[in-house]
Amino acid sequence: MQMHTRLQALIDKAAATRWRGLAVIQAEPEVEFSWPTEALVLTGALNRYREHLGQSQTLVVVDMRHDLHADALAAAVQIVQGGGVAVCVVPSQTNAFITRLTSYLPPLWSLHWVCPSACAHTDLSNLTVKAPQTQTIELTLEQQDVLEALTAHIHTHSLTAPALLSAARGRGKSTVLGVLVQRLAELNRPVVVCAPSKRQLQALDAIAAQQYRFVAPDALATGARQEGIVIVDEAASLPANILAQIVQRYPGVIMATTNEGYETCGRGFLLNFCRQLKHQYPAMQQLSLVAPQRFAQGCPLETWLHQVLLLRPTAQPDISAKDASTAPCHYMWCHASTLSEPLLSQCFALLMDAHYQTSPNDLKQLLDSPNQQLCIQFADTDMQQVTAVAWLSEEGQLDIEISEQVTMGRRRPPGNLLAQSLSYYMQDPELATLLWLRVVRIAVAVPLQQQGLGSALLRHLLTAAHKRHYVAVGTSFASAPAINRFWRRHDFLPVRIGSKLDSTTARHSLVMLHCIAPNWRDRVTLWAAAFAYEFEAAAVLYQLSDEYVASLAELPNISMEAYHNWASARLQGFCAKHLDFANARMTLLQVLKPNLNAQPCLRYALCDLPLDAEFKRQQGVTGRRQLHEKVRQICLALHMTI
């Protein structure tokens, strides 16, 4: 009852203002809560939090007891309007991230409650919650200025250059878009609005419902061409490749977005995306909104969120690019939880700005996982100015039983991307039992990029890795020619290319290794040689550019005997239904090449040819899944030994 009283007092206090309150409740997983029907409760599948972006609520509950999802927390808090309260339910067992959540609670505007272990049910359903405020369409002077700028841009560049409106959440971007749609409708200008989902246009619909045509992102990017002014809301929540396709088809598109890291694309993507747009479209218009509209200026909840999740950019190092390229660098290896707040803030800001998908979830992982490390580069002997940082992950050393399950595709232990990827792809359970070091990300301060600092950092960590017991240092990334060349310059060898495009970047992932253990050097070289042997076909089937192919040139050669010995385990894994068709495809193509003309099933499957009705009828298949199974049966029937 005491928690009910204190929470109601916080709700009443917030309702009397346009600030927002925060309650952090720690409870065992078995404790059940009942909430008012007016509350938006996020629980279970927290990875679907993006569906609620763009909404506005007075009481939002995010239950993270089964999934400490920092991205969902950030989104949930920003849904709360002025006069509302956010409730965060976390496990009773404290870790570094939960300690961080509770250490910066705003005085007078927060509640921290630990449920007694004997508590089985907490009824909070009769809390009195104020109904969400009706949105006003009276624009502030700042919003009016942005509206006029967008109107002028459409008048001048509606077909030739995009405009991007960006701001923190709650600044009234969607309100401006709604009034813009209304204004265009009055001028009989057709308007097409796109967002990740229709429900995310709640604020825009409150002003301009029925005055535009909604088109889903995929349809706008690849479907029939739309006529009219194209507006994209929540742009950073779209996959990067979809957004790029939309801009290419509709150069005059108006985009609005937040960019606080918990959207599909991180802050680093938007910074790079804006640079590319400005280069491609010199007349591109960049606009922003600063003053909050959903809540009053100085809201303690927003201050808490930005402080806890490090969402705000930090000052860049006080050193010129010229000095940075010549001054000696200093280094420190550490765990993120041991860093001072200023250094942690600098490191995470670099990761946010330099990488397309860094999010608050990454901060949580860096703080909580003992296998994550940071290698930090400094420009000063006092080690206070961070110029670059590498996020490293120690992986592998799994039990042999789990390793065998990984090899059969039945287990994917979290935090072991490199170890399990190699074990599964090579069909060798031993690989998951070994110790690997994965370079998750390398980030250099934006003003200091292209000065060799990233290379210096990588050379340092490779030298340090040779003093430890790693088999190899590896990396897995969304590949592109320039990035491939960077890793090749440091003697990293490609050993696996992803069979599917990354959903955010529309690029193939690439796994590369730099061998550390001398007794494994021949094995890693063999993997790279096998990769090179299959890469020619992969380049054609994946439609890789000449520049991409050239970026992975000068790889080791392999004899047919060595290749067949390497391929045998993979083919056996495919026949045993351990290795899926997509990952076995390039090896199958090389081994079964002599049989392609005699076996139409092989040709259609391995060359990814369209399955017409006549082929399906002749082969007795209804789709690709049955076709791939038929390939497996053909392999078994041939009794292939390599």
TrEMBL record:
<dbReference type="GO" id="GO:1904812">
    <property type="term" value="P:rRNA acetylation involved in maturation of SSU-rRNA"/>
</dbReference>
<protein>
    <submittedName>
        <fullName>tRNA(Met) cytidine acetyltransferase</fullName>
    </submittedName>
</protein>
<keyword id="KW-0819">tRNA processing</keyword>
<dbReference type="InterPro" id="IPR013562">
    <property type="entry name" value="TmcA/NAT10_N"/>
</dbReference>
<dbReference type="Pfam" id="PF08351">
    <property type="entry name" value="TmcA_N"/>
</dbReference>
<dbReference type="GO" id="GO:0005524">
    <property type="term" value="F:ATP binding"/>
</dbReference>
<dbReference type="Pfam" id="PF05127">
    <property type="entry name" value="NAT10_TcmA_helicase"/>
</dbReference>
<dbReference type="GO" id="GO:0000049">
    <property type="term" value="F:tRNA binding"/>
</dbReference>
<dbReference type="InterPro" id="IPR007807">
    <property type="entry name" value="TcmA/NAT10_helicase"/>
</dbReference>
<keyword id="KW-0012">Acyltransferase</keyword>
<dbReference type="GO" id="GO:0051392">
    <property type="term" value="F:tRNA cytidine N4-acetyltransferase activity"/>
</dbReference>
<dbReference type="GO" id="GO:0002101">
    <property type="term" value="P:tRNA wobble cytosine modification"/>
</dbReference>
<dbReference type="InterPro" id="IPR016181">
    <property type="entry name" value="Acyl_CoA_acyltransferase"/>
</dbReference>
<dbReference type="GO" id="GO:0051391">
    <property type="term" value="P:tRNA acetylation"/>
</dbReference>
<feature type="domain" description="N-acetyltransferase">
    <location>
        <begin position="348"/>
        <end position="462"/>
    </location>
</feature>
<feature type="domain" description="TmcA/NAT10 N-terminal">
    <location>
        <begin position="5"/>
        <end position="93"/>
    </location>
</feature>
<dbReference type="InterPro" id="IPR000182">
    <property type="entry name" value="GNAT_dom"/>
</dbReference>
<dbReference type="InterPro" id="IPR027417">
    <property type="entry name" value="P-loop_NTPase"/>
</dbReference>
<dbReference type="GO" id="GO:1990883">
    <property type="term" value="F:18S rRNA cytidine N-acetyltransferase activity"/>
</dbReference>
<dbReference type="Pfam" id="PF13718">
    <property type="entry name" value="GNAT_acetyltr_2"/>
</dbReference>
<keyword id="KW-0808">Transferase</keyword>
<keyword id="KW-0547">Nucleotide-binding</keyword>
<dbReference type="InterPro" id="IPR032672">
    <property type="entry name" value="TmcA/NAT10/Kre33"/>
</dbReference>
<feature type="domain" description="TcmA/NAT10 helicase">
    <location>
        <begin position="209"/>
        <end position="311"/>
    </location>
</feature>
<keyword id="KW-0067">ATP-binding</keyword>
